[in-house]
Request: fold
Amino acid sequence: MRQLLIDHDRCTRCEMCLSACPFGALSLGEEGLEVGDQCNLCGACVDECPEGALDISGEREEVDVSDWQGIWVFVEHSDGRIAGVVGELLTEAQKMAGKAGYEVSAVLAGAGVADLVDEVIARGADRVYLADHEDLASVHEETYAGLLAALVRRHRPAAFLFGATVRGRSLAPRLAARLGTGLTADCTELDLESSGQLIQTRPAFGGNIMATIVCPNHRPQMATVRPRILRADPPDAGREGEVVDLSDEMEVVAARTVLLDAVREDAEGVQIEDADIIVAGGRGLGGPEGFDMIRDLARTLGGAVGASRAVVDSGWIPYPHQVGQTGKTVSPNVYIACGISGAVQHLAGMRSSDTIIAINRNPEAPIFKIATYGLVGDLSSIIPHLKEEIEKAREE
Ligand SMILES: Cc1cc2nc3c(=O)[nH]c(=O)nc-3n(C[C@H](O)[C@H](O)[C@H](O)COP(=O)(O)OP(=O)(O)OC[C@H]3O[C@@H](n4cnc5c(N)ncnc54)[C@H](O)[C@@H]3O)c2cc1C
Reply:
């Protein structure tokens, strides 16, 4: 069993470890330094101690993986609406669960969230762990990680899936660290072996290879999955599921931080994640003013404006519009790439679009390899012409 060892003879009570500990787990008592339950053996105090009085010893605890059963999905929600990725994860979890004889459970936590239970079941959960508590009203990863860690230790799921959203990317690693298990971030594909082993696939080395990652010795197997990579089945209002209401029995640990305000991302027009049509611009636009043309075409089509990283980095348009490996993953019905070369990192975020139309003056541009339709020529003449033709067709 791993533990933090304190050499009291060496300890000078300098207190440097106290401020180094991110979890406030250390304190000075009459007998010397003491370690509290919050310690997750992160090692920050060991690195900080100038006297070498602290050490972490022992092997990681052996886990009997056969004790861990089922797939869990974290239900992200805001303003009374469940995030789209939750349906995608529940659909995928249901597809996989049968291979190992598992059930699919969802964890729904927040304040006043009980109304969402039916929808979570309709979207694929066999069981919902409901934690409805006023102390969960604001999003504190620390509080949520403590709650989820306690639930995981009690119910032992084999796998726990999160959306690779801002929230999921912040919460899942905290939970994995507390549980001493692995986490594969930003998966694009999941599968389950009959043994319960989760096969997690994600791009690596700038998207040039796909890495397959397993977590054979620890549980739960944790993954975040990018929104819109997997397809969600439509909700089935006739599905039945069990509700395990934990609202009265759980202990909510207060966070050490206070959320003062939440400010919504200021993205103009339609959000690209939800758009059916995206008109995206790249360096071929020549400058920020080139986006006037893109916005105009997007407005005509009732679509949203996307962008490559090159133009976001140049400050031509803000980050919420960026599509790609380090931006958003989108899967609209129509994606129009204007002056975008088609680097692998850009393709990683849009290649699952139903119809891809590429406009580029270079006939050899890589974007044409995945385009459904390609228009070779200058943007400044093609885009206005395209817009005119669309308007004409609408009037007919
Ligand atoms: C770790 C990492 C992560 C990354 N993440 C992302 C990401 O999330 N998203 C992303 O997009 N990129 C990402 N990149 C950057 C990526 O590698 C490319 O540099 C970037 O996508 C290029 O943007 P672009 O296509 O707009 O520019 P360019 O590659 O410069 O392409 C411009 C294109 O416009 C065409 N063109 C020029 N003028 C005209 C004209 N008048 N008419 C028509 N066509 C014209 C050119 O022929 C060219 O094909 C990442 C890179 C790294 C290393």
